[in-house]
Amino acid sequence: MIRVITHTRLASLQKDVDQARARSQDVQASADAAYARHVRTIHDLTAEADAADRRAEESSARTRELRHALDQAHANLEAARTTAAERTARIDALTEELSVMLGAVVLLHYGQLHSLHPDEAAAKRHAATFGARLDGWGPVSDRPAAEVPWRISPLSRWAVADGGDAG
Questions:
Q1: pTM of the model
Q2: Does 166 score more than 50 pLDDT?
Q3: Beta pairing partners, 151
């Protein structure tokens, strides 16, 4: 079958083709713009995800450092507590010894240190085992300690550097 097309019909078809081509170009331009936006969005999101990954890794590394520092601080604290407990026990023992020693006396025999006793009564009993009388003790005389057979002096007043009773 042969169809006869008029010049007007041909012009009308050409116009439709031109419009369709223009519409196709508009749609293609819109699609290209949408694709470009899509690619930019993917690029931006990928960059943001990479940056977030880096920040997360940095945060993890910092967290590990802080955890290590915290563990070390806990170990140091435990060591300090142990040391403090040991020192407290030592202070308590020394305090107890000191309280015992506050009443301590030295027993001198002719000015020389003979023995150390917790109190005067114990020193007198000890001197009695060497022949001194239990009741014959009097106040310290003006005589030098080297001339007195037995003398009791508070440990706190006895000067070791002087080698005898300070008073």
A1: 0.45
A2: no
A3: 108
- Tokens in use for 49? 């995800």
End residue of a domain, out of 52, 75, 102: 102
- Residue 66 phi, psi (nearest 5): -65, -40
Distance from C-alpha of 141 to C-alpha of 122, rounded to nearest angstrom: 21
- The two structure tokens encoding residue 12: 């009308």
Please tell me the total count of domains within the chain. Answer: 2
Residues 50 and 79 in one domain: yes
* Radius of gyration for the chain, computed over Cα atoms and rounded to the nearest angstrom: 54
Instruction: Tell me the per-residue pLDDT of 95-134, one tens digit each, with 9 for 90 and over.
Output: 887 777 778 888 898 888 899 888 888 999 999 898 888 7
Q: What is the DSSP string of the chain?
A: ------HHHHHHHHHHHHHHHHHHHHHHHHHHHHHHHHHHHHHHHHHHHHHHHHHHHHHHHHHHHHHHHHHHHHHHHHHHHHHHHHHHHHHHHHHHHHHHHHT-EEEEETTEEEEEESSHHHHHHHHHTTT--SS---SPPSS-GGG-SEEEEETTTEETTTTEE--
Of 102, 119, 142, which residue sits at a domain end?
Answer: 102
